[in-house]
Task: inverse folding
């Protein structure tokens, strides 16, 4: 029996030109390259230029993904854009991207699940495609976290960066076997009891300001590995796969220690882990597609490979997705 699957046709990414190093941060606030590298693995991050918005980053990434897929923008009928740093409160940043691509059919909307945003967006688009509602989707993660950081708070401002990544999905009939290409399973979770551990202290309905990111880092860290590994085990169980079967583990890039500990707990070999946190910092919803684009471009991820995505972030929200490339 055949199964409809959301097959990845291409991916792309974009990083703003300006690079901010740990040394530059240490010249501004009470921190050091040594502390940041030891605690997080981050060495540098990219920062959007003045006048460069989340939609600009997203549009670059979307065009790169369409080029990689060899597809004209008119073939897209769904855009799901994950961001916590939209251009404006409304309309959705996704419609700015849609307009930039010259598309005026289908649907485009934003989705907000903070650092888990890309996995939530991928799952959402996958469900729409498999239901037959749309044919081809752009799934984008795009962020300008530099705009919501408190640059005097050394506990958070050293961690985040700006960027965008995108994938193109197409609904295709596959044989309905574990060897199918496309999104094989997705698992999403949320637990609002933790909402005050990582949040932005402003918003249209509360302060009428944008606000700044606040985080109890140690508390987030404490929960991260358990939540991440639980939801990956769900993906393994749903598909009858094991850590051995995974070709590439592309986690949300928040902290190298969290990534290493999660891979270790799941017995995923270190050489299968794609790491970009050193170069990009934590780019929230953009981090997975940014890392994916690097691993596809350098030839690591090849057709037929089994790729595991995972993310955890504010809310808390967390999720996993297993995709055959
Ligand atoms: O993507 C969304 C999910 N977010 C995450 O996954 C982040 C999870 N949390 C983390 O990655 C880590 O908790 C951090 C990297 C944020 C912090 O690392 P930590 O090992 O948990 O450090 P800590 O917060 O326990 O702080 C240890 C010390 C403190 O000093 P005292 O109180 O021991 O004297 C901090 O004040 O490090 C100090 N500290 C810093 N020192 C130099 C905090 N930030 C800095 C800094 N530079 N930038």
Result:
């Amino acid at each position: 029996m055949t199964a409809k699957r959301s097959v990845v046709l291409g991916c792309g990414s974009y990083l703003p030109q300006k690079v901010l190093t740990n040394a530059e941060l240490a010249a501004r606030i009470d921190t050091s390259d040594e502390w940041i590298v030891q605690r997080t693995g981050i060495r540098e991050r990219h920062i959007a230029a003045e006048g460069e918005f989340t939609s600009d980053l997203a549009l670059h990434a979307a065009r790169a993904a369409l080029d990689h897929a060899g597809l004209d923008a008119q073939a897209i009928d769904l855009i799901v854009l994950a961001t916590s740093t939209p251009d404006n409160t409304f309309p959705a940043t996704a419609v700015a991207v849609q307009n930039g691509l010259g598309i005026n059919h289908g649907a485009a909307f934003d989705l907000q699940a903070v650092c888990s945003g890309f996995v939530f967006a991928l799952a959402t688009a996958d469900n729409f495609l498999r239901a037959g509602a749309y044919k081809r989707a752009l799934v984008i993660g795009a962020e300008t976290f530099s705009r919501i950081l408190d640059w005097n708070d050394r506990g958070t401002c050293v961690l985040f960066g700006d960027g965008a990544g995108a994938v193109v999905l197409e609904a295709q009939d596959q044989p309905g076997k574990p060897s199918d290409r496309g999104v094989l399973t997705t698992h999403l979770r949320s637990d609002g009891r933790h909402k005050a551990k990582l949040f932005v202290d402003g918003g249209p309905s509360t302060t009428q300001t944008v606000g700044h990111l606040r985080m109890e880092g140690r508390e987030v860290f404490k929960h991260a590995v358990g939540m991440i590994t639980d939801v990956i085990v769900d993906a393994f169980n749903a598909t009858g796969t094991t850590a051995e079967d995974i070709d590439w583990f592309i986690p949300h890039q928040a902290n190298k220690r969290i990534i290493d500990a999660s891979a270790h707990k799941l017995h995923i070999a270190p050489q299968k882990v794609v790491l970009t946190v050193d170069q990009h910092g934590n780019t929230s919803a953009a981090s997975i597609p940014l890392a994916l684009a690097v691993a596809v471009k350098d030839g690591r991820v090849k057709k037929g490979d089994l790729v595991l995505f995972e993310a955890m972030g504010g809310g808390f929200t967390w999720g996993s997705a297993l995709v055959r490339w």
Observations:
- The two ends are 21 Å apart (CA to CA).
- The domain at 182-324 is CATH 3.40.47.10 (Peroxisomal Thiolase; Chain A, domain 1).
- The longest helix spans residues 217-239.
